[in-house]
Amino acid sequence: MNNDAAAIRIEGLGKTYAGGKRALDGISLSIRPGEFFGLLGPNGAGKSTLINILAGLVTKSEGQAEIWGFDIDKHPRNAKLSIGVVPQEILFDPFFTPSEALEIQAGLYGIPKPQRRTAELLAAMRLTDKANAYARTLSGGMKRRLLVAKAMVHSPPILVLDEPTAGVDIELRQQLWAYVRELHAAGTTVILTTHYLEEAEELCDRIAIINHGKVVADEPTPTLLARAQEKNVVVTIDRDLDAVPENICFDKVELKGERRLAITYRKDKVNAGEVLAALQRDGLGIVDVVTKEPDLEDVFLSLVRADG
């Protein structure tokens, strides 16, 4: 791959299924090597279609896509060798053990036996003690981790995780992210789709949000979070209140107990100092202030609503 090439470059990508359903509508994205990239959107937005096109499982209707510098139409084999995909659905042959499943997967990629990493991947996914158990006896979390191991058998420079922690308990989720963080620290480009927005906010350098098959946002995570204009502050005052104070700079104000006010305001119109000054002008003494920063969920919902 050229030094200036993107890990994944998508231009004008479209997909129309038989029957006329338009799943992707001219999507363009460029993902840099080594980036931890989040791909978010509501159900039916087109995320899985996009991933399946990159994985070679769905044929695009128009546009171009390159993986690690290889066009998916002109160089499909090299493109597939450059990407590992952990699918959303848990699909297994129940009669193969994890060790056999990884050996078969490595064979499909043409990896010579001396170069296979079966034991290493099983250890990384904490599945060594289940190496020779039938896959049908594994728990849901173990099956999910085995899918990650299968995606990594050919040591691809790009790893795509499609809802990897769906149905996985908190401990296993933390173990999975610890491994993915190690891969990312070692240089692997990671692309994540998830419904857990706090995961995307914590892990991703940059996030794209798609809705109705179109990109509605594609920005560094801090920039995207800054787009949330609504802020919340809880103020404890020095005396009991029977009614909530009103002020033009409050979008919304609620009484939470006799001495706590939950105030919502727009940071593009006023700042926290002006909100507190308004309370003081009403003769209220301020004992304590707790602010809530806008999170990715706030941004996500506002963008999807605006696009709807």
List the helices and strands and how they pair.
Layout: E1 8-16, E2 22-31, E3 36-40, H1 47-54, E4 62-67, E5 70-71, H2 76-81, E6 83-86, H3 98-108, H4 118-124, H5 140-151, E7 158-162, H6 170-185, E8 189-193, H7 197-203, E9 206-211, E10 214-220, H8 221-225, E11 230-237, E12 252-255, E13 260-266, H9 272-281, E14 286-292, H10 296-307
Parallel strand pairs: 3-8, 3-9, 6-7, 7-8
Antiparallel strand pairs: 1-2, 1-4, 4-5, 9-10, 11-13, 11-14, 12-13
Features:
308 residues, alpha/beta, Rossmann fold, Alpha-Beta Plaits, six-stranded mixed β-sheet, 14 strands
Task: Please characterize this protein's 3D structure.
- The protein has 308 residues and is of the alpha/beta class.
- Among the domains are: 130 residues, P-loop containing nucleotide triphosphate hydrolases (Rossmann fold, 3-Layer(aba) Sandwich), CATH 3.40.50.300; 78 residues, 2-Layer Sandwich (Alpha-Beta Plaits), CATH 3.30.70.
- The chain is elongated and about 80 Å long.
- Keywords: ATP-binding, Nucleotide-binding, Transport.
- InterPro entries: AAA+_ATPase, ABC_transporter-like_ATP-bd, ABC_transporter-like_CS, ABC_transporter_ATP-binding, P-loop_NTPase.
- GO terms for molecular function: ATP binding.
